[in-house]
Amino acid sequence: MMNNKIMIIGVAGGTGSGKTTLARHIADEFGNEVAIIAHDSYYRAQNDKSFEERCVQNYDHPDAFETELLCQHLSKLCSGEAVDVPIYDYSQHNRSDKTCRVLPRQVIVLEGILLFSDKRLRDMMDLKLFVDTDADERILRRILRDTEERGRSLQSVINQYLATVKPMHDAFVEPYKRYADIIVPGGGSNPAALDMIITRIRKQLGNS
Prior knowledge:
- The protein is an alpha/beta fold.
- The chain has a single domain, classed as Rossmann fold.
- It is 40% helix and 21% strand.
- The longest helix has 20 residues, at 154-173.
- The chain is globular, with a radius of gyration of 17 Å.
């Protein structure tokens, strides 16, 4: 039988590294005991900016996120309270007026590029996973995702990558992988690492 303490797992890594896939594998393993929260959901609202202005913002810097709200939500979940997570509209580069109700679960999986760059979040995590994937593979995955799922043009994805994504990765993602408890090459496509992570989670939950 599981204990009452909520376990918070952080899954960080570069854009297109496979963070979401790894988080979903963990969720599939533990079912209703897991809630997944994406750091991207906490991009700051930009209702005071035009669409053109929003298009040129730096979305890969820690200041682009309302991380203080995420910390508040995590504290509430750990206290047994449900929270309303914002829903972000990537096609409009802005937070929508909708939210998603997230209930307290035994395991909370946080997924995001910049999670480890914020000490407040790191201090709340029981297990920190860094997904380490080759840069060429990551940019190809991002191009496919942003053009097919988020309504972006190929040129806009490339421009954003060169202008902010890569420099911010070098400044705020790569240096912080030293805080990871486990580095996962290849993300969700690494079954050996996934088995080890699942075993670690079960042991920490007292459910082995």
